[in-house]
Amino acid sequence: MVSEDEQQLHVMFLPYMAPGHMMPMVDIARLFAVNGVKSTIIVTAFNALRFKHIIDRDIRSGRRIALEILHFPYAEAGLPEGCENLSSTPTPEMSIKLFHAINLLQPRIEKLFREERPNCIVSDYLFPWTVKLSTELGIPRLAFSGSGFFNLCVAHNIELYKPHENIQSETETFTIPGLPDQVKITRSQLPDIVKTKTAFSAMFEVLKEAERKSFGVLMNSFYDLEPAYVDHHRKHTGIKTWNLGPVSLFNVDKEDKAARGDTISVSKHSCLSWLDSRKPDSVLYICFGSLTRFSKAQVTEIASALDASGHPFIWVVGKVIDANNNDEKKQEYWLPDYFEDSITKNDEGLIIRGWAPQVLLLEHPAIGGFLTHCGWNSILEGVSAGVPMVTWPIFAEQFYNEKLLTQVLNIGVPVGNETWKIWATQDSPLTDRNKIKNAVSAVMGGEDVAVEMRKRVNHLSKLAKKAVEEGGSSSNDLTTLIKDIRMYKETCEVENVR
Ligand code: UDP
């Protein structure tokens, strides 16, 4: 007789060491556990500290979920102890060392899979070698993409039609052919890799090939957010996908929301009580994700724009390392001193140095706008909370995400950044204070356009919540996915008996 233990599916999750990849995958692993699947998350020691308390709580409530904690080879890669995540690498040089250390983990992770023999690998798409491993183990490999369908369709069509090759100027807008909507972009907003062969070109080919060879791709999105693009992608790529998002909505408990991703740098009570004292929809929330850092000059422009716009705000600031400053004590930089002094005096805003409880704050009724770098998680969190956005994309696929907000869904206003860059910590051409102020006013002001935008995003917020409820599209996709993994297991068992 087959024991209950053997019957239960065991899925192992391998997240990439960056908050925007790790946090949604941890949410997905927890979702699987709630749905009766034994989930194991592979993580390194310092990264585990970011969510161990949440997993411990799940275990106490009877879920079968575990962390498999590995030592991170920081010393072998020349990194300081504790530097195990892309968010702890303030320079491109350190990021490259981190990539190297992550590569060093491969044999240990492979060994772990061979010992554990789970029924499925959920792998970040940045680990293409898990395809070969899954074939060896005879189990499905699911890639976790971390972005949305709109981005995948835009990237696919740009590669297919190469519209940028007919454009001379970096700043002239052109339309991306073959998409369900008219989407415009400039050459300067395209990733380098699209325009020229770079050091990363071969790697991207490997990633794409791994995606094609996978059992399918897990998406953190929901059907009603981008229906035309879900259908377009399924029709034109033939890649199987399951839409499970927005997975951040799985954090219902206030404690989970507050503790998501890292230790917060403020007291959640002081933030919430400050927000309680504000009018509904009056506060601008500003956060550029877990990786982006701006130059001193850019931080000053943002500060001046906020000063001039007069809207109350919460601004999450990261530490800037100014390597050009010979005075070591002055290399670390957060904000212009004059600015912080004046806002504290006038109680106009709240500065969070470090990590904010983003999901918790966005949901507060006083938050009326979100100045975002257009990271996919932040976009989903803004949509889920029903907050219109001021868009300021920086790197990765963020310019594509911006177009979804500003040209398709019409729930965002661009500050007008024109230049894609490869590293989140690298300087960009300065976006001046007037541009920032104008975009903020367009979202936070009472004009008809802003009112309509708010209505649209509120409607999407309702659809997001519906998608993850029982019977909703994402909840149904999760049920189908678990059935698909079970069927794969059973088919393999039958074939083995033969
Ligand atoms: N985040 C947070 N507090 C912070 C900064 C970021 O909780 O102070 C979370 C945010 O809620 C989101 C993730 O970190 O879930 C950032 O992911 P995103 O895809 O938006 O951007 P990335 O950091 O990958 O550039």
Automatic annotation (TrEMBL):
Q: Which Gene Ontology molecular function entries are recorded, alphabetically?
A: UDP-glucosyltransferase activity
Alphabetically sorted, this entry's keywords are: Glycosyltransferase, Transferase
Q: What is its EC number?
A: 2.4.1.-
User: Matching Pfam families, A to Z?
Assistant: UDPGT
Which superkingdom heads the taxonomic lineage of this protein's source?
Eukaryota
Q: Does the keyword Zinc-finger apply?
A: no
User: Which family would the database say this protein is a member of?
Assistant: Belongs to the UDP-glycosyltransferase family.
* Protein's recorded name: Glycosyltransferase
Q: Which organism is it from?
A: Acer yangbiense
